[in-house]
Design goal:
Length: 391
C-alpha cells in the first residue's frame, strides 16, 4: 500500500479524491478535539482504499476540502467505511448538512458476526490482523501544529488496518448471508436527523423528575436558550449551565434576576450580567409544554402486570439463548422495550415481527408468548421445546 503521509495542499487532495472516487469503497476516520468547544474541531482526516492511504490536514492554510466532501456525501457509487463512526459522521454533517452515504460501520457489522455489541477498534484489529495497536498517540493534542511523523503514522494506521479488515468482514457476511441484516442499521446511522442539534429539542437531554407542563415548558425554554448560547460561544453546553442547575431553575424559577446570584451552580455575577438577563428573558417567554409535546408515559410496564413481566423475562432469556446459538449480538436481534411490548400484547410495528429478525427470533418469541414454546432442561442444559396447545 502506498502511504502519502500528510496532505496539506488543494491540488494533491483533489488528485487523491479523483482516484478514490473511482474505487468501490474508502475507509474514513477523523481526529478532532471537542473538550473545550460546542462544535468538534476537525484536526485531521484519514482516508484509504486497498491501494493508498493519506492523512489530510483540514487546518492547512488555504486548503480546499470540497473534493473530499463531495466524495463523502455526494458520490453514491463509493461505499464509505467507518468504525464506530457516529462522531465522524457528525463532523461531516456539521460541514455539509449531509451525511456520508452509502456507509458501512465495522462495529455494527461485528455485531452480526458474533464479536460483541461494541467491539473497540483495537480489539477488532487484534482479532482480524493479530496486530497490537500503538495507543501511545491516542491522547495527542491533534489541534497543535506541527504534527510529528509518529502522530501521522498512528493516525493513518487506523484506516490502513481497517481497509484490510473490511473485505474480510464483507466476505464473512456474504458466506453467512448476514449482509442483509445490516442494511436497516446502516441506513439508521446514516439518517441526518441523528446529527441535527435542534435547540427546541435540547431540553429532552435533561433529566427532570416531573410531568408538570409548566415546569417542562420552562425547561424547554431554558434548554433552547442554553443551546443557542453554547453554539454562539462555541462552548460545551455544560460550561454555560450544568443540567442539574437547568432542571432546578425550571422547577424553582427565580422571580427576578437578582435571585440568580443565590442559585446553586451559578456565580454571583449572574445577578447582573448580560447572560443572566438573557436567561431571565427566556424564562419570561416560557409557556407550558403543549399536550402534543408532553413525553409519553411508559405504558408498557404498568400494563404488563406481574405475569406479563415474567413473560418479558422469559423472552429476554430466549433472546440470550438464540443470540448465543446463532452467534450474534443480542442487541442486533431485539431491544428490551420490544420484548416488553410483545409480552403486553402488541403485535404491530415491532421490528422483531418483520424480516430477518422474525425468521431468526421473532417467530419463536411469538410462539413463546402464545404458549407454543417452552423451556426444558436436558442433560443439565436449557433447551427450547414445542408444546401441545389444547384445541
Amino acid at each position: 500500500m502506498h502511504i502519502h503521509g500528510l496532505i496539506e495542499d488543494s491540488a494533491a487532495l483533489a488528485n487523491l479524491c479523483a482516484r478514490l472516487s473511482q474505487k468501490p469503497y474508502v475507509v474514513v476516520d477523523t481526529e478532532f478535539m471537542r473538550e473545550n468547544s460546542y462544535w468538534p474541531e476537525l484536526c485531521l482526516i484519514q482516508i484509504a482504499d486497498d491501494e493508498e492511504a493519506a492523512a489530510i490536514d483540514p487546518k492547512a492554510p488555504g486548503i480546499d476540502l470540497q473534493p473530499l466532501l463531495d466524495l463523502l456525501v455526494d458520490n453514491e457509487e463509493v461505499l464509505k467505511v467507518f468504525h464506530a463512526g457516529g462522531q465522524d459522521i457528525e463532523i461531516v454533517y456539521n460541514l455539509t448538512g449531509k451525511t456520508p452515504h452509502p456507509l458501512f460501520d465495522t462495529q455494527i457489522a461485528a455485531m452480526a458476526l458474533g464479536q460483541g455489541e461494541q467491539i473497540g477498534y483495537s480489539n477488532l484489529v487484534d482479532s482480524y490482523l493479530g496486530i497490537q495497536v500503538d495507543k501511545g498517540a491516542r491522547f495527542t493534542d491533534w489541534g497543535r501544529r506541527p504534527l510529528d511523523k509518529r502522530q501521522i503514522d498512528y493516525a493513518i494506521a487506523d484506516v490502513t488496518h481497517l481497509s484490510k479488515i473490511f473485505p474480510r468482514m464483507l466476505e464473512k457476511l456474504r458466506k453467512t448471508g448476514r449482509g442483509v441484516w445490516l442494511d436497516e442499521e446502516m441506513e439508521r446511522i446514516a439518517d441526518p436527523k441523528n446529527y441535527h442539534n435542534d435547540p427546541d429539542e435540547a431540553w429532552q437531554r435533561v433529566r427532570v423528575a416531573t410531568r408538570k407542563a409548566d415546569v417542562l415548558g420552562r425547561l424547554k425554554a431554558l434548554g433552547r436558550w442554553r443551546e443557542l448560547e453554547a453554539q454562539g460561544k462555541d462552548l460545551p453546553r455544560g460550561r454555560i449551565v450544568k443540567d442539574e442547575t437547568l432542571a432546578d431553575l425550571a422547577s424553582n424559577p427565580p422571580k427576578k434576576q437578582a435571585d440568580l446570584g443565590r442559585v446553586r451552580g451559578l456565580s454571583a455575577a449572574w445577578a447582573g450580567n448580560d447572560i443572566g438577563g438573557r436567561m431571565m428573558a427566556a424564562l419570561a417567554e416560557a409557556k407550558p409544554l403543549s399536550h402534543d409535546e408532553m413525553p409519553s408515559r411508559d405504558e408498557r410496564k404498568p400494563a404488563l402486570g406481574k405475569d406479563g413481566a415474567l413473560v418479558a423475562d422469559l423472552l429476554k432469556l430466549l433472546l440470550k439463548i438464540r443470540a448465543k446459538e446463532i452467534n450474534v449480538a443480542a442487541r442486533l436481534l431485539a431491544r428490551s422495550d420490544e420484548l416488553e411490548a410483545l409480552a403486553a400484547g402488541q403485535r404491530e410495528g415491532l421490528p422483531i415481527l418483520d424480516g430477518w429478525r422474525y425468521e431468526q427470533f421473532g417467530r419463536d418469541a411469538l410462539a413463546l408468548v402464545e404458549g407454543q414454546l417452552g423451556f426444558t432442561v436436558r442433560g443439565g442444559k436449557l433447551k427450547m421445546t414445542r408444546t401441545e396447545v389444547p384445541s
